[in-house]
Amino acid sequence: MVNRRGESRLGCLIVLLIVAVGAYLAVDFGEAYFRYYQFKDAMGQEARFATTKTDVQITERLSALADSLELPPGAELVNIQRSPTVITISSDYDETIKLPFKKERVIHFHPMAASRL
Q1: Is the Cβ–Cβ distance between 94 and 106 less than 8 Å?
Q2: Looking at residue 37, what is its pLDDT?
Q3: CB-based burial of residue 76 (10 Å sphere; 0-12 exposed, 13-18 middle, 19+ buried)?
Q4: Cβ proximity of 104 and 97 under 8 Å
Q5: What number is the average pLDDT over the span 58-83?
Q6: Separation of first and last alpha carbons in the chain
Q7: Distance of alpha carbon 74 from alpha carbon 66, whole angstroms
């Protein structure tokens, strides 16, 4: 049998292997960023309705959400700053992603939301 130009026996398998490894790594990074965006969205919602809630109520709700999203320690420490016209809610935390070959990648997240009062 004659090989046609561009044809190989392992070409498709190598591409599939690369795609599988990429998908495997993307899942962990995707979950971390998805949780970050959920937490940031909740902060924005709390900031929009801050005129009807106290700082303690906002902190309790966001701390409970950080726990339910299984965010790392430190995410539940929410910083709230109020001025006569603006409220700013923020937090800082580091998420550790486990990679193959016993490597780790630490990603720093700083979700923040602000709204007029």
Answers
A1: yes
A2: 97
A3: middle
A4: yes
A5: 95
A6: 77
A7: 9
Supply the pTM of this predicted model: 0.83
Q: Strand locations in the chain, DSSP E?
A: 79-82, 86-90, 93-99, 103-109, 112-116
pLDDT value for 3? 58
Shortest CA distance to 46 belongs to which of 63, 31, 67, 33?
Answer: 63
Instruction: Break the chain into its structural domains and give their ranges.
Output: 11-116
Q: How far apart are CA 19 and CA 88, in angstroms?
A: 41
Distance CA 103, CA 98 (A): 6
Give phi and psi for 72, each to the nearest 5. -65, 165
